[in-house]
Amino acid sequence: MPAKPSAVDYTFLDAVVNGDKKDTLMDYHHHLGKQEVDFKVDTGAAVTAITEQTFQKLGTPPLSRPSQILCGPAQNCLEVQGVFKGQFAFQGKNAEENVYIVEGLKTNLLGCPTITALHLVEKLCYTELEGGKEIKKLYPKVLSGLGTFGERV
Q: What does the pLDDT average to over 122-148?
């Protein structure tokens, strides 16, 4: 049975890890403006958020007041310094998305709107298609490396 945590033990929801090996599958280097920035791809995040340190590295672009209140997974309100329009580039794709500067954030998070705009994650909206092979044309990368489908597809 694991030892009971002491009063000073804590963790935060950054990533689920397997022992000492941290899974970097969802870590990406993106260009935000002219700077290369490390992000964790977070499909559950409604916005893209960066640390205060990353904001300083970007040269402190002018901020606007956020139009919404941001909350964490436990519904706790987050302290947001401001928001700016960020220019993202990744593998030939460009996007302009809101970037929130969140106090105390430990990892830059690439949120769903930016993920979608840069086509980092594709989704299958249906499980059945007429014509079978059509799915391979629509989503060639989704079906590669995972095994193969027989001719019945």
A: 59
**Structural domain contains residue 5:** no
End-to-end CA distance of the chain: 48
d(CA 24, CA 88): 20
The H-or-E segment that residue 112 falls in is helix 112-117
* pLDDT tier, 22 (very low <50, low <70, confident <90, very high otherwise): low
Q: pTM (2 decimals)?
A: 0.67
Q: List the domain range (segments joined by +) for residue 41.
A: 27-121
How far is CA 110 from each of CA 61, 82, 113, 144, 147, rounded to the nearest angstrom? 18, 16, 8, 24, 29
Give me the sign of the Cα torsion angle 32, 44, 8, 101: positive
